[in-house]
Amino acid sequence: MSFMRALLFMSLFFVLLPAAAQQPAAASGDGVQKPGAEVKPEPPEWRKTEGYRFPAVAKTVEDMQNLAYAMQLREFCANPRVADDFVRERLDRFGAMTGREESCQTLLDY
């Protein structure tokens, strides 16, 4: 039965991932950049990929790895037997990989 759940989850993930990747990120209305946020330079005209239907393979792999790690961290967050220091350390490591500050709440984004 768990195999069927995993198969269902993976099929939904592959169907919904391209649609989620196409949605533009919400822009802050005040125009002020948040501390720690990197400014990416505008790519040259010949390098623009806005019209691509699917993201690059590397981006998809990164998203899937982040999803798997976030799911594991959510289990740590939900388990009261796991020490708080351990969970905080793992969240900090994950935040270093994603480039944002992670908490048990932010894991819901993955």
From TrEMBL:
<protein>
    <submittedName>
        <fullName>Uncharacterized protein</fullName>
    </submittedName>
</protein>
<feature type="signal peptide">
    <location>
        <begin position="1"/>
        <end position="21"/>
    </location>
</feature>
<feature type="compositionally biased region" description="Basic and acidic residues">
    <location>
        <begin position="37"/>
        <end position="47"/>
    </location>
</feature>
<keyword id="KW-0732">Signal</keyword>
<feature type="region of interest" description="Disordered">
    <location>
        <begin position="26"/>
        <end position="47"/>
    </location>
</feature>
